[in-house]
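Is it possible to get an amino acid sequence alongside its tokenized fold?
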Amino acid sequence: MAYNGFAIDTYLDAAAVTRQLDQLIQKPVYSIRRDKLADYVQRYFEGKCPRSKAMIAQAKSVIPGGVQHNLAFNYPFPIVVTKAEGAKLYDIDGNWYYDLLQAGGPTILGSNVPAVREQVIDLLNTCGPSTGLFHEYEYKLAKKISDLVPSVEMFRMLGSGTEADMCAARIARLKTGHKNILKMGGAYHGWSDQLSYGIRIPGTKGILSKGVPGYVFKHTDEFFPNDLEDLERKLRANRLNGGTAAVYIEPMGPESGTRPVSKEFIRGAAKLARDYGALLIFDEVVTGFRIGLSGAQGYFGVDPDLTVFGKIIAGGYPGAGGVGGHADCMAHLGAGLDASGKKVAKAMCGGTMAATPISCAAGYYTLCEIERTNACEVAGRMGDRLTQGLQERIKKYNLPFVAFNQGSICHLDSVGTMHFAIDWKKPWTIPHILKETSIRQKEMEHMGAAYMAEGIVTLAGSRLYTSAAYTEEMIDDVLERFDRVLANCGPLEV
């Protein structure tokens, strides 16, 4: 499929990328040279970002860690942003950056888009941000999503993707009468207790879920990405213990495709969920309206029972979350009656700041603008250009790094932190894996700092979101900045 309105021209070879990542974690760790990192810290962060440093130092006295959002962390200290416009961010010290973070993915149009901002300002002038009562934009947004995504017959707005994932689990249990939840190992479905299982690294179970009692995971299990046999084993085992209510899928692979999955796996997982009486839940918090107007499900040709949305559906404005799906499933979110008047069990779900006029208006006009400008395809073309340029430079400097792309979700993996897996049949290997991933995580932070010093904001130094605000000339400039970092990388000094 050549784009055709989607962000993807040719789907990647998931097996080939996996082999590259397998090789990456077998090699010595490569990172920014220590002398160059020290130079970046002294020359850029200490020399050009004094106001950011001072503000973060003050913030640490009243905010744990000094920032309110994990994405804001950066070595050696976070940067304080005061302005966002299109593809660029500006900090409190007057420096500017190319934005490849895109707020974690929601601003596919670019930041602070006038066509959306003006509508939001008009609404604030006439209605204000919230009333607690119904507003016409609640209908307009729900209708727009339903029109664009074939599987979404009904839509319910919530406050975040985390809330939507929690809500989807309740719907699934009511609809199927089953107890258990299966999720892809390493995938992220928000930070709720029952879904914070097997996060970051497949096989971790509850190891990384600090503060969550083990018994909470009694009805949650993980299956290995790209392994249909493992998924079916788990589905079969659940038949003897309350059945499987839902199979959760991140359609690009766990952590927005950090470990990419094949088309065959996605379609096979969908069939297995149906065969075993489970609802198929597509978590499209990142991919919804980024891969295409019909989401990743439209690209893959899959009809999930429920879809979890977030990020883009409010265009970067607060209140970006929701769940949509088949009418017979969504009936469990109604006032106790389905469309025919038949009584159904109601899933408790709500939120005072869910579906506010401001979030719904922002979402509606964001989707309209994505559709009008063909933003998914534009952003995808920029992602392809960026990835190709990175691959050329990796080869130029003979680095073991792996660059691959899923539309406008680009990956530059320098250490393979999330490509490790835990094998509980070999428990003696677990401490080594946790130590190794910790070391590699630190080097991701160092790489992220180097990119920041060259005027590029990334997600954790490894994930790069392109937006429709980018031009080919901008991407080429971004690549020159990456080049200066990659030219100064080598084996980790120990």
